[in-house]
Amino acid sequence: MSPSAIENALKGEILNLLDDTLFRTLRQIIKEKNLNAYVIGGYVRDFLLQRPSKDIDIVVEGSGIDLAEQAARILGAKVSVFKNFGTAMFNYKGREVEFVGARRESYQRTSRKPIVEDGTLDDDQKRRDFTINALAISLCPESLGSILDPFGGIDDLESKTLRTPLDPNLTFSDDPLRMIRAARFAATLGFNITPEALEAMKQNVKRLEIVSGERITEELNKMMMAARPSVGLEILDSTTLLDEILPQLSALKGTESLEGRKHKNNFEHTLKVLDNLAQQSPDNLWLRWAALLHDIAKPLTKRYDQQNGWTFHGHEFVGSKMIPKIFKQLRLPLDERMRYVQKLVALHMRPIVLSNEEVTDSAVRRLLFDAGDDTDDLMTLCEADITSKNPRTVAKHIANFATVRSKLKEIEEKDAIRNFQPPVSGELIMKVFGLEPCRSIGAIKEAIKEAILDGVIGNNYTEALELMYLEGERLGLKPVEGIETQNTQNNIENETQSQDLDHTCGNACDMPDSDDAIV
């Protein structure tokens, strides 16, 4: 179907699109002020692809800020103005509407920030990254609803092709972030990059040096949320861009053989795990990052043993230690999201070991204790880690993991170990034995925790209290006379816990030299 035929077929839909309150308001201002303005970019692309989109870009031949401010006043929206960039934006009924004046750009080799001059719609379309993002819909009265497609973007939508409006070497050299966007669009849209553009990406790899880490990571996160993130990562790998962005992942590539024994390609395995998880968990970005990084330490822990062949002992522990550095390197958040990924990387072998052995109550309690609220996500990661091509092997692992899940549910319902808190608090131990903060308190709490996890005692106050006295006696501690433990515990639970426990204890205890003494 030719562009004009597509435009004619969609004419009614386009006019319906432009007939809501937002676009009617913009059209009225444009008519009154005799402006030339257009909807451009991703919103047009997604409309033609029948994909949902809430980000609307408006380009104006003139001042985008003036149009934004006038529209915001009428619509009752709060406008944000960025004069240095000549842009303005506001939120209207859940849609982000951004306004910019049409411009032409020129670049210097040392910076991705362009020299900007006022321009026309044609100038603005030439500076776009791909033909499918250079499409525009007119908001002008005389051409309302017309599609402006100077570079064959509609044909490229039909053929699912990513092509640059200008010479790809120029496009990517001017703004190297566009190379990462190419991989991202290939993954999220299912499009193919032209051979010329792929070659230009290889030629401009070193230009990534001028791009901020934050911008690269923003594109990576969008790529990670694709239905098949591996598509984008394979493109980054084939163009050697991955070596610049995440060399630790590139290091997983390849196999090695000794004495006729070869290990699997851990890069290919990792991408398969990531795609598996994307199917099982469509909305959790950080679980996907855990999948991508779960075997990241295998190159560092690879050893060959004549009896067992290739081993990667401790790769989960070493990998978890690598996560903070990788997150810092990629400008990813160094908060609870990083710690979540770190935890899952550290624990991802535990359910696998359980699934291959007898599932004991004690082992399950410990897994619940360590994984806490992230237990279900950990199991999802482990199930995604099944990448064997042997159907019998896959069926066996799935059945084993089903047993582990069943046992986790059974033990949690019985013992309430997830997010475990000791039934006996450190404050109660201090009051019962008349202690200042010290190592003995931590020792008693640890003994109670281990006894519960091993199933020696139940996860309840009565049995924990009895063990507290036994452990105190073993440590040579004597209870304060006349202490009523139940009332004391109730009072402690109602108090605001504001004590600083990091100081020297009394005569009955030693000065702590580690975090073991913290209660």
Question: What is the spatial order of strands in the main beta sheet?
Answer: 3-4-5-2-1-8-9
Give the integer mean of the pLDDT values: 86
Number of helices: 26
Q: What is the approximate shape?
A: elongated
Structural write-up:
- The chain is of the alpha+beta class and 519 residues long.
- Helix 14 (266-280) packs across helix 21 (375-384), helix 17 packs antiparallel against helix 18 (336-347) and helix 23 (426-433) packs across helix 26 (485-494).
Considering the chains and any ligands shown, give keywords for the structure.
519 residues, alpha+beta, two-stranded antiparallel sheet, 53% helix, elongated
Compact summary:
This protein has 519 residues and is of the alpha+beta class. Helices cover 53% and strands 10% of the residues. Helix 8 packs antiparallel against helix 11 and helix 15 packs across helix 18.
SSE arrangement:
Elements: H1 3-17, H2 21-33, E1 37-40, H3 42-48, E2 55-60, H4 64-75, E3 79-82, E4 87-92, E5 95-101, E6 103-106, E7 115-118, H5 121-126, E8 136-138, E9 147-148, H6 153-159, E10 161-162, H7 168-174, H8 177-189, E11 192-193, H9 195-203, H10 213-224, H11 230-238, H12 241-245, H13 247-250, E12 257-258, E13 261-262, H14 266-280, H15 285-293, H16 298-301, E14 303-305, E15 309-311, H17 315-329, H18 336-347, H19 350-355, H20 361-371, H21 375-384, H22 391-415, H23 426-433, H24 439-453, H25 461-474, H26 485-494
Parallel strand pairs: 2-5, 10-11
Antiparallel strand pairs: 1-2, 1-8, 3-4, 4-5, 6-7, 8-9, 12-13, 14-15
Helix pairs in contact: 2-4, 8-10, 8-11, 14-15, 14-21, 15-18, 17-18, 20-22, 23-26, 24-25
